[in-house]
Amino acid sequence: MKFYVSNSGSSCTKNESSPYAPVIVNVENGELVHQRILLIYGRAGPQDMDFESKITVEHHENNFPSTTWQVFNSHFKCLIHLDSGLNNIKFILDTKPFSSDSIPLTTTFQVYYSPLLQNPPLNLAILVAKDSKEIIDAPEEKEKSGENKLESVKAKLRCAAYLWQAFTAEQMSRNEFGRRVFRLDEEWTEDTISNQNPGLRQTARIHIIRSSYTLKQILDPDIAQQNPNRVDGKKDLYSIFMDSLQEYGAPFDKQCYVAGLILDTHYDTSPNMGFVRGHAALGGGWGNIRLGIFGSHLTHAWPRHLEEVVSCFQDNTITDETRLSNDSGESGTWWRCCNIGIGAFLHEVGHCLTAPHSPSGIMSRGFNYLNRTFTVKEPNNPLPMTPSEEEGAHWYRSDVVRFRFHPCFRLPLEPPAKIDLKDVGADFWILNDFLLVKCLAGISLIEFYIRNNIVGYLDYSNDENNNQIEIRLKIDEIIKNYGDNNNIIKINVVSKNQNDTFLENLQKFSKESKIILPIYGKAFKSNYLGKIDESLTEVKVLFKKFTENKSITLKRMVIKYENIINSITFYWSDNTNLCIGRDRGGVKREFLFEAEEKIVELKVNSGWYIDGFEIKTNLGRRSEWFGGHGGSKHVLEVPDNEYEMIGLYGTGNYYVNTLGIIYNLRI
């Protein structure tokens, strides 16, 4: 989406007499963007010679000071500050390195900034122990300057978050999803994003979470992620951070997204330790909080201000491993510490925003190349860092497809997700040689895994109606394209409501879903809902049974439940019965079938067990809702009118563990 101002001043202007004036490559003049700090890539100066120069960025009608950025062999990258509304930006090239007249060349560029205030923000939080010293690990020279103190850490986290935002917006644009991006929770306060003129601005809010947990608890070596002998069963750092957010209250008392830095992380060099304590790199969430956390042991290398971004990503100072961590053996210099500290933290924020591990990019270990996004020079590398040289500094395509439909990335003209589809998951059916996938919330992505590694995906983000709810896939083509019969293929369906639904073993499901039944002959089983327990015996419940030319019909169901279904007992016209689960009491309800009446649809909520369900019959009747409403929502019905439901199947022990349907071709 682009925004153009109607008057003639909206055009990009430059020194027409010189082909060496700055040219912006990655952003169109007058474009609409949604982030405060915009990443610019451009060309300036002669493109057929080696030289180094600089570009000064000036902001007209903007209270942000001028900044200076490198030009290397005509390539430049810079980060420009934007205010809401129209921004007039000047790019001024120093021509001294390649021109005798030394006259600066100027390009004026316009960008319109509109923050996505309607979307939930990413919140920034720093966890501080109850008795914290409020300092981080840092080299001696930075300790003397106070760069190891809490106020400095706040500035570093704020700057890192704006780098995340600028990087992600550029990646979304490169993947043709516009410049949609998550917004940061901001407030009007003393800004630190520039070291020249702090002043009051609308800037990222940093929540200081003063925990009830002590330093001893947070630095407990038994829960340190890098401790090879850590102890299972103790409350881990992720749970401690979660507890502390809940104790803090708003805005963490409702659905929220959080990037959490652990302030008191410490690299312990004592003989019995030799690892980082108080650190965990984890992302995900539960309840209303989605959270990515990281320790502060590499934060000493981060920039506090935009003016420090280039120097920090190019600082080749050797890490003093007698006092500072060389994380993963990949942080031996400060610029690499900066990469891993900011980049690996972004990896955990990616998990917070639903991204899994990917074959390449940030959700792999591509963050080792994060510097290449923001600078045109890299230590010990003679080549300019153009976009084609950025290597792992990218979001993998399946990540950006997830973000495309994430509520944090919604554009103003896009309707919000429907509340009634919020928890809807996908379901699977076998149709002879095909796998049918259905999801009423719409399907954006299907991922294929072997041994928990993504080996391929199908992208449905650009379907014409943007409402892909049913997809048929040829099973032998999936096996041919993404694996073979010797490797288990796991399928994950990502729906547009951000739910993931896994089919753990395609080959097994394909084989076991085809069954032979007396009288009926060939039949199929849908995927089961709930979580399988291999020790439990599967129960098949046919609506109509046949003995000696006599049909026996299902007459009633008795359901017992609390928040989840304890048992379902089926009774036939010959007084026989079958039970799934265990009669453990609870609320008791009964459903009676009329003559020739049978089930044609089940609405089911399930997670680890069957939480609750409702049935619909061929006579149009619906039962009441039995059980609770936890887990994800599913609808089990026949794939199309060529088939009919002939029964159910499931397993149970203390509760009803799983449920599915049995169907065959209509006779």
What features would you highlight for this structure?
667 residues, alpha+beta, Immunoglobulin-like, 4 domains, nine-stranded mixed sheet, six-stranded antiparallel sheet, 10 helices, 35% strand, elongated, disordered N terminus, Putative zinc metalloproteinase, Metalloproteinase_M10B, Jacalin-like_lectin_dom_sf, Unchr_Zn-peptidase-like
Task: Give your account of this protein's structure.
With 667 residues, the chain is α+β, with helices and mostly antiparallel strands. It has 10 helices and 40 strands. 15% of the residues lie in helices and 35% in strands. Strands 1, 2, 3, 4, 5, 6, 7, 8 and 9 form a 9-stranded mixed β-sheet that branches. A hairpin with a 4-residue loop joins strand 32 and strand 33. The two termini are 53 Å apart. This is Putative zinc metalloproteinase. Pfam families: Jacalin (PF01419), Metallopep (PF12044).
Radius of gyration: 29 Å
How many domains would you count in the coordinates?
Answer: 4
Number of helical runs?
10
Helix and strand content put the structural class at: alpha+beta
Tally of strands:
40
Mean pLDDT: 92
Summarize the structure.
This protein has 667 residues and is of the alpha+beta class. It has 10 helices and 40 strands.
Give the SSE map:
Elements: E1 13-14, E2 23-24, E3 31-33, E4 37-43, E5 52-60, E6 67-72, E7 75-81, E8 85-93, E9 105-113, E10 122-128, H1 140-144, H2 150-174, E11 186-190, E12 200-204, E13 206-210, H3 215-218, H4 237-248, E14 256-262, E15 266-268, E16 275-277, E17 282-286, E18 289-295, H5 309-313, H6 334-352, H7 371-374, H8 397-404, E19 427-431, E20 434-438, E21 443-450, E22 453-459, E23 470-474, H9 475-482, E24 489-495, E25 500-503, H10 506-512, E26 514-517, E27 521-525, E28 529-530, E29 539-542, E30 544-547, E31 550-561, E32 565-572, E33 577-581, E34 587-592, E35 599-606, E36 610-617, E37 626-627, E38 632-637, E39 643-652, E40 656-665
Pfam families: Jacalin, Metallopep
Protein name: Putative zinc metalloproteinase
Domain Jacalin-type lectin: 513-665
